[in-house]
Amino acid sequence: MCRLAAYIGTEIPLENIIARPRHSLLVQSQDAQEAKLRVNGDGFGIAWYGHLPEPGLFKDVLPAWADTNLPSICRLVRSRLFLAHVRAATTGASSRENCHPFTHGRWAFMHNGGIGNFGHLRRDMEALIGDDYYALRRGTTDSELFFLMMLSNGLDEDAPAALRKTLAQLLGIAERRGTAGQPIRLTCAFSDGARIFAFRFADDRQAPTLYLSDCLDHGGRAFASEPLEGPCARWRTVEQDLLYELAPNRLDVHAIAAAPTPMAVVAPLRSLSA
């Protein structure tokens, strides 16, 4: 299992999420508390947004704690919205192309979990990707294919609808092909540079963990696989089967299985140090 974090709010150094908190993403890369594997050392990546619509991207196959460039980048690069990921490989070799986040245009996407019996389902998944998007494929992971399926299903126009359609297609393939008793578990975060979307879904109801913070001390909010402060009441669990859409001053929640109408939720913004 991987660990991930995503931030939106006032512009801050990347290190405020990735390196400085007591249970930062960097700490989680070596000592995850809510994952099957405590160590996530099969690469890392960061996608951050600045003055252009497309995100910057930095990723490598080194463990996050072993890359000597990462501390300087996290200290000096500032962003109002960024996604960060440390990888524990489940499908696909340890290569830069297989490290998250994956990007296209204004979108950045990252995933924790796995698609059961992926090797048996992969060909049917590939067949649902449009030619233009299939040409973008660089790696061999189930995560990248799921992202390309969402792009093919209209992610640019309607993110909740694209996710619903992609999940329905994936579950249809799994029912037809079979997963050999292996679960489909998806905990994902993705962004268009203005909002962060995040969801947890699993066909066995055991999706990997994800939390949403209240207001951080610098005015932003974050998603993280594990609370950046360690366990505390100021981080709430992201519920399964819902798509969270987080903007700087608003949180909307959408059903991703059946109901097409989003439920608007304005979350309280309380102070939180991280």
From TrEMBL:
Keywords, in A-Z order: Glutamine amidotransferase, Transferase
GO MF, any single term: transferase activity
SUPFAM superfamilies found in the cross-reference section: N-terminal nucleophile aminohydrolases (Ntn hydrolases)
Domain of life the protein comes from: Bacteria
Record-annotated Glutamine amidotransferase type-2 domain positions: 2-274
Record flagged with keyword Manganese: no
InterPro entries (UniProt xref): EgtC-like, Gamma-glu_amide_hydrolase, GATase_2_dom, Ntn_hydrolases_N
The protein's name: Class II glutamine amidotransferase
Natural source organism: Stappia indica
